Amino acid sequence: MRLRAILLALATLALSLYALPAQAASATATFVKVSDWGSGFEGKVTVTNGTTTAMTGWNVQFDVPAGFSIPSAWDAVMSRSGQHYTFTNPSWASTLAAGASASFGFNGSPGNFPGISGCTLNGASCGGSSAGVPGKPGAATATTTGSAITLSWGASSGTVTGYRVYEGTVVKATVTGTTTTIGGLGACETHTYTVKAYNAQGESAGDPVTATTTGCTGGGGTLPKHFLTGYWHNFVNPAVELKLSAVPNEYDLIAVAFGEATATAGEVVFGLDPELASAVGGYTDAQFKADVQALHQRGKKVILSVGGEAGRVQVAGAAAATKFADSVYALMQSYGFDGVDIDLENGLNATYMAQALRSLRSKAGSGLIITMAPQTIDMQSTGMEYFKLALSIKDILTVVHTQFYNSGSMLGCDQAQAYAQGSVNFMTALACIQLENGLRPDQVALGLPAGPGAAGSGVVSPALVNQALDCLAKRTSCGTFVPPRAYPDIRGAMTWSINWDASNNWSFSKTVKPHLQGMP
């Protein structure tokens, strides 16, 4: 009886096991980032029919983060609504057999793509999206010395083989922990790194982190973290004529326009324009110098701008470089100027101007303010003379406030299209060229006209300048162009000019300066 009972129990157990329902099979869609080359990436999605019946048509939908886009795809029909993309099977592949798979691919921009989100397949969760790939690394932080940058980040979820640290598309370090030091760097160098967790299934990228090695000695005195620069006219034109004493408190840095050339190469001279002196009811050199000192007492800085549209200052040799440094330093001592602004619109030699500015720095000391006001075309690439100059004196350069006007449409750092001047896209996409090609964010400012009459084209509402600053500092309030990362240390804004601002009821300074003060 006992044997019979045991056999009966075993038979019952076998029957019950046989009767358990099998786990339901499903269809999945799996995303893999095939490659990433810094300015773009390639993605691939594989749709797998894990069911026992053929699938008639498939529809994959997902979102990509703000700032990323997918311009082209293959082996699928693509449509887009904002950051949401839909992919459906091509007409020649309308049926997916049971157990079969089909893949489609796409190219996107920019690079350092972190992955997709909200993936659905025929209305249900994709299930296999990013399956097996590590989670996104935690936010990276950086500490610096004069020759190294140490990065630390939060561990990724999932199975992690290790972490690769990229600068652009180049792997700078591969580690199994969550910290690394990248050495062999120079003083005052800025680098942007992206940490990516990896395993056999692929990589997952964290947010980029930018850091600058110590040893920067650029001037700037007591200029605020975010400041407003304005040019003051030492000439008469349709704008309001002003004495320096009439410059309002909204301006932190006043650039006196202009120092002029002589017959001696590189020499710069300055004197009050007699027509201006008459227009403001009388103005002497002594009164001007007293006004410079009064501005200093108010916490302002005053520099001499060299060049301008009609300027003919030329520094094209060693002797001219020496003469430039000697003559500008003499003017600084005589008038109380805190530095110099390079606004040469009729030719610039980066090699000898760098020599001149370094010589001036050796005379004036670490408090010397050096600014530059290139035209938009001058900062389109690092091969331009102005850009070469900025990079070659980066360790002593205060700020570059490019003139984002009088230029027409221009390519931005994404190289995707020519952006129309007078727009948030234009200001942010072109500033991004400098920010992504060697200048520190604290060395980049936006130069705009103060209102109607100040420029032939590119006049913008001051509110749009504030919007562009927020886009660059926080990646908020952007237009269709979104920068690849945030630059919270973006330096500020410049306007041509204080006189034109006065002609337009101080709209520029009274709108932009409070916004700069409110930036972190």
TrEMBL record:
Its EC top class is: hydrolase
Q: Does the keyword Manganese apply?
A: no
Positions of the Fibronectin type-III domain: 133-220
Task: Establish whether keyword Hydrolase is in the entry.
Answer: yes
Q: Which residues form the CBM2 domain?
A: 20-129
Provide this UniProt record's keywords sorted from A to Z.
Answer: Carbohydrate metabolism, Glycosidase, Hydrolase, Polysaccharide degradation, Signal
Please state every residue range assigned to the domain named GH18.
226-519
Signal peptide span per the entry?
1-24
Q: Might you give the EC number(s) for this enzyme? A: 3.2.1.14
One Pfam family here: fn3
| Record InterPro entries | CBD2, CBM2/CBM3_carb-bd_dom_sf, CBM2_carb-bd_dom_sf, Chitinase_II/V-like_cat, FN3_dom, FN3_sf, GH, Glyco_hydro18_cat
UniProt lists the family membership as follows: Belongs to the glycosyl hydrolase 18 family. Chitinase class II subfamily.
The protein, known as: chitinase
Species: Nonomuraea marmarensis
